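User: Solute carrier family 25 member 48. Structure?
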Amino acid sequence: MQTRLQAGQGYGNTLNCILTVYRNESVVGFFKGMSFPLASIAVYSSVTFGVFSNTQRFISQQRYGDSNHAPALSDLIVASMVAGVISVGIGGPVDLIKIRLQMQTQPFIKANINLRHRATGFPAYRGPIHCVSSILRQEGLAGIYRGAGAMLLRDVPGYCLYFIPYTFLCGWITPEGCISPSPSSVWIAGGIAGAISWGTATPMDVVKSRLQADGVYLNKYKGVIDCISQSYHSEGLKVFVRGITVNAVRGFPMSAAMFLGYELSLKALRGDQAETNP
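Assistant: Predicted structure:
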């Protein structure tokens, strides 16, 4: 729904989007383009969390001589920014394939009928593999990273508002004297951090989605600035908060589960290390 609201046409609000998708495409429509993200989410999440954690420990080692030293706010900012940059390299192609598969069922916009057609069949892609090969054939390797600039502008500050609130909320909720936060503390802190991050990232998420959806059949936008300009002139400022409700609502349970899995995995690994390296 998030992609349909942000890059699609004819959806007045979230409820209207749900009803329209169900009426036109049945339940299957809500799961279009999900096979590729599901296959890659484990790698994407582990790399992003791993980069953040290892960068933070590296900074602590260099600054304080102890990799387990409590990080300062500046340390968290740098580690979050590095994680955001790395995430684009992995997440950019994944998001592109998902969005192209989801948006290929959207009708042409009347205002765009004079734009250059890139494909004539409908639907344009038969699946993730065909989508990748079509993009590489028509747009080259750069086409796989279409929208990467907007994604950088979304993820670099977005991860700062993801990891930093989580770190401080976790420390605030966890009782003094406890070595590690409880699962409930992790769940709450992770969920709140996810809602904050996804909610504030929505404006640039709209731009990213539009740039990545652009090109299924038509080429409309020349880049980030052009996308912002065209979107603003045609739909006003309200276009940049499209999907904010979906983003914030989905951000809580998704992030809560991810942070909980991350912390439990770290605890299990540290326990194994303690047993093998007393």
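The CA atoms of residues 184 and 260 lie 9 Å apart. The first helix runs from residue 2 to 7.
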